[in-house]
Amino acid sequence: MAAYVAPVRDMRFVLDHVIGYEDLTKLPGYAEAGGDFVATILEEAGKFTAEVLGPLRRSADAEGARIENGQVRTAKGFAEAYRQYVEGGWNGISLDPAYGGQGLPYIFGVILNEMIASANTAFGLCPMLNHGATEALLAHGSDELKATYLPKLISGEWTGTMNLTEPQAGTDVGALRTKAERQADGTYLISGQKIFITYGDHDMTDNIIHLVLARLPDAPAGTKGISLFLVPKFLVNKDGSLGARNDLRPVSLEHKLGIHASPTCVMSYGDNGRCVGYLIGEENKGMSCMFTMMNLARLGVGMQGLGVAELAYQQALGYARERVQGKPIGASDAKAPILEHPDVRRMLLTIKASVEAVRAIGYLNAKAIDLAHHAADREERWWNQGLADLLTPLSKAYGSDVGVEAASLAIQVHGGMGFIEETGVAQTLRDVRITPIYEGTNGVQAMDLIGRKLGQDAGEHWQALFNRIEAFVNDLPPDGDLGAIADGVGHALAALRRATAWMMAEREQSLRAAAAGATPYLRLFAMTVGAYLLGLGAKRATAMLANGEGDAAYLQARVVVARFYVEQLLPPAVALVEPIVKGDALLYALSVEQLAV
Ligand SMILES: Cc1cc2nc3c(=O)[nH]c(=O)nc-3n(C[C@H](O)[C@H](O)[C@H](O)COP(=O)(O)OP(=O)(O)OC[C@H]3O[C@@H](n4cnc5c(N)ncnc54)[C@H](O)[C@@H]3O)c2cc1C
Description:
Order of helices and strands: HHHEEHHHEEEEEEEEEEHHHHHHHHHHH
Distance between the termini: 46 Å
Bound molecules: flavin-adenine dinucleotide
Low-confidence stretches: none
């Protein structure tokens, strides 16, 4: 079984030659974060994830998390690995230096998340949720809450969680019933039960800070009546030391398809009427606070999909090089490894090209977040915020779908051994299967894209992005590899423009008809952007080859992979325009009774 190796060179290629990372080094405070510094960080992160987290992946999956005497115990080695993670300063890598973070560009946090997801997906959920909680507190917490909690959340000494889901309130968050009652001292008493809470309890830190959505007695119905509370496992004294245990507990752990080592808890708050919570932001404004957390977590989940897809590729390639079956077509005698068979090649290249496309989309998304926060120019901040908003549902849904597709293909490459746990590739699929579901299902991402993002700022952001892609296509030579890429991306853009025009009109006429095509529309959108970005990389690689710069074999591979994506993977996405514009008629042509016959 191939051990994970961080694809540092591929990451560097996207940073340097596709998304223009150097723009970030011109921002205030980021001048040092260029050149050798990037190489050092990526190499050290690669080493840590591969050497410390990777070796625990299989054993932690087999052991899982358990609950003993009301306390969750994580798998052997997790607490020690977490200690090393904190001591290495990894948790605060791109978090606010005012509270002890290292203040590096946000994109480093995204890359680290990808590496952790490859090496050990279940472990990675803990820091991912912690970062969401941290960002929400940074953006919306009072100075006092920030001073008390942020330093420890940022160092990783404490972890944070996100508590939205209840049995009747999943996608429909507005249906939640957890209660919050005002107290004379300004705190609130929280009571209710949450389900599916990731790392709701564990033994890796001595405090856990829960961010809990709850409803005040006089709150309006639905999402307009939800408030956000900070609810610590242990109350914190004025001097920062830990005080009494708060009235909350993990009730049980879910038995899951994958990510066994990530404890997914049913949490109970206020069994004894004494669960203390502190308001974050304003009463009844909890949803907008939570969105800060969710948007970043959505990119995080997309990058989890990417990380697992990368692992799937390494596993599939490793097996395909070793496994000998049959003769290559046209060969007379000698048997050969299965990667000589065209179908196996197709599977390998499908995973590889998809991974590279998702990586480019995700890193561009992260760069836009950095610029949205730190660019000096107001207009530039605004434009990048819009771009980040537009790209986030693409990163989340396409990234996680590619994760599942890649893991499934990797099993196929392994043949029967892929279905046997021993190879470890079955775990890859089990672990990644949750990513299209949590942080807003991919169906919800597609609705977000057509419902909110297309209309945002009168569509200026997608129009500008489409124009940028068009200018790129027009600038490419008419023949050769780049000509083929121009042709394919041009067709995809034409289909995307047509589907978008239909969506914009249909949203006004019949939202249900537009919603019926939302998922294929997201796929067409994401793959067009992916093809454009791979094309940018191919163009750059071609120029470098012509100048005799860099490693020729590596650069030639970038051109071939981009062309494979455009010629072999993109056409089915382009064809989605027809089903998209058909609307919802057939979906509702059968009555509910007829669905059962
Ligand atoms: C392992 C795991 C970890 C999790 N971690 C956390 C956590 O840390 N914190 C937390 O709060 N939650 C967590 N969740 C919950 C997770 O976010 C929800 O499961 C998810 O949001 C979907 O909600 P649901 O399960 O109720 O599905 P439902 O909402 O019942 O959805 C079922 C299906 O219907 C579709 N659907 C529902 N409503 C709509 C709609 N309006 N439009 C279109 N389609 C719709 C969905 O896309 C889906 O396909 C976790 C879940 C799991 C399994």
